[in-house]
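Write out this protein's structure.
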Amino acid sequence: MDHAYVLFDPTGRIGPRDFWRGVILLVAAQVIMQTALVYGPPILVVILSILSLALVYPYLCVFGKRLHDAGKSAWFFVLLLVGYLLIAQIAGQILQPFASEALVDAQQTLQQAAEDNNIQAMFETLQLIAKVQYLPGLVVMFLVNGVLGYFVARLPSEAGPNQYGPPVGA
């Protein structure tokens, strides 16, 4: 598998196997970034927040090429992105009770630190909130990537050439 092609080139087609490999690499990158956000120094929060937004493009490339292989436009990725956000929101609401008491306490502490203009306490409280939401966030991420990945991987490949290129392996 050509990682640069799968992750960074929006043109062409990929089959289900390369699609899953790309999704696994992207999920691994997300796990590493989330872990670094929670357990790393505060300066990483800004850097990794920007980098996490940059993952949208590789996701577009991976999902777009798989959609191309099924003869669909990569514009369907927008629908997948809406589905991603919707499923994540629903799953987050379902998992929220597991962290709600600690989260409420942390939000009150954050509000007090903001009123006192205590930047250090605000950063420490934000890290505490990130730690409380870490495990539920990972569960949601795996769930959403798995559900959407499953449906996109199951799309039937077009046997011959289509407007997006030759069939995979040709």
